[in-house]
Amino acid sequence: MITKTNTRNERPSKPVSASYTTIAVQMLPSDANPMGNVHGGTILKLVDMAAAAAALRHSRKNVVTVSIDRMDFIQPVYVGNLLTLKASVNYVGTTSMEVGVRVEAEDLRSGNVTHTNSSYLTYVALDDQGRPTIVPEVIPRTSDEKRRWKEGKQRRDQRLRMLTARQKTRSRARE
Ligand SMILES: CC(C)(COP(=O)(O)OP(=O)(O)OC[C@H]1O[C@@H](n2cnc3c(N)ncnc32)[C@H](O)[C@@H]1OP(=O)(O)O)[C@@H](O)C(=O)NCCC(=O)NCCS
What we know:
Elements: E1 13-15, E2 21-26, H1 40-59, E3 62-68, E4 82-92, E5 96-106, E6 113-126, E7 137-139, H2 143-174
Parallel strand pairs: 1-7
Antiparallel strand pairs: 2-4, 3-6, 4-5, 5-6
Bound molecules: coenzyme A (COA).
């Protein structure tokens, strides 16, 4: 078990708004798949970048991605679209943070905006020795932030249940 570098009693807190991050990038022909639409991997990389920046803003520590929940590509993204990724910390455990990312594509000529993806990613903050370290509590203020916090807690519980079940299956397979 890795030692945590702080205790719960001294734990500071930050509002969700301290982690708000927006990235906007115009999609180029080099981002396309063989069909000419934007490659899913390009979008996934940008999602991870935006989410990591939000986790860093919340923790002000180095962070690593420990898990990415399922990612559904609801609508195609086209070359020329302006892709906007909005990320913020939804919920924190002790050393981990769930970050939600919403992706929208704007047709710059018509101004039409479509919601193309949403995803939840979990990051762990690391201290200077590369060990998981405690992050500030997150304080939801708006009704959307409160809803995301509640749903983030449920997703975290579900992830941890799945992790425990997977670990049990692996150790049974080893016996
Ligand atoms: C992230 C890492 C340091 C965690 O190490 P660990 O030994 O599992 O540490 P812990 O058991 O103390 O877990 C740390 C936290 O991660 C969470 N966690 C671990 N595995 C997880 C998973 N698969 N999904 C979600 N959360 C997970 C734990 O619940 C814990 O959260 P909490 O402190 O908020 O309760 C380690 O798994 C690692 O280095 N992974 C590789 C990361 C990486 O290279 N990412 C890609 C490039 S950035």
